[in-house]
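Changelog-adjacent note: as of this version, every example in the card shows the full chain rather than a window. The one below runs 318 residues end to end.
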Amino acid sequence: MTHPFLSIRDFGVRFPVRSESFRRGRYFYAVRHISLDVRKKETFCLVGESGSGKTTLVWAILGLYPFAEGEMAFCGRSIKRSNDPVHQALISNAQMVFQDPVAAVSPFLTLGQSIEEPLRARGVGKKERAAIAQRLAAETGLSHELLGRRPCEVSDGQNQRVCIARALSTKPAILFLDEPLTALDAIVQREVAELLYRMKKDYNATFFLVTHDLDFVKRCGTTVAVMYLGKIVERAAKETFFSNPCHPFSQALLSSVLKPGIWKGERIVLKGESPSPQNPPSGCVFHTRCPRRLPVCEKTAPEERLVGAEHAVCCHLF
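Full-length structure tokens:
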């Protein structure tokens, strides 16, 4: 039996409630009951609104937040608590590209030194580090003379290229990308998207992509999972997701993209705002905004149901 490269079951991440009363023991869940599988060498795409828990989930996978419930498995080996030996093996085989490229690089290091930093931490010699940094700079479109500059002397797009080169320097088995295009202007977004597409083909690594850019997902993705208020409401192969989205939130999300080929129906405008994770609604988390809600949606949370091959949805309509 072939195990998923990364597996998560009933995963939950919680934080203490901050209030004027300072009462202890009160928590809210930013992520709850998450189950998903990531296959080796695929591009797994996690999409959804800002504040839905996407980044929290990734940070918990990488041990930056402890997870409160559930478990993970890496290459078939179970992880039942944060930072156990198997979790450390996952972290050492992973790299991260953060949303804000300027905040993600040290202002005290040159761009070349930033690319070399993971290699230095692993004991790679100075000459080998420099050679790898120069090769990766060329592959990511950075000129040799830029390697001696500091982050404040180059553009956001060039800093993001540095972050991508740095992440690839250790040849990670899995690369997590948290909104890698969001902080960039439209022209630079296209350039960096093209770079990531090329790097995925060249390095053949597993990508875990958090993004709002559904056009990028359509081009580069393998599997798509849709997150709303801390829960996965739909997951499917990319082709299935774009041709036959089932959950009302997935349909609204796709209809909001004003690009040809993404959504063929009428625009779906959701009313109201997403509820606070500190005070989530009863029943289905989406029922307060759902244009197709049923009476049962207000009282009972739907269970995940398979509606096709590798296509699951959490909705009482199915």
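Structural remarks: The first helix runs from residue 54 to 61.
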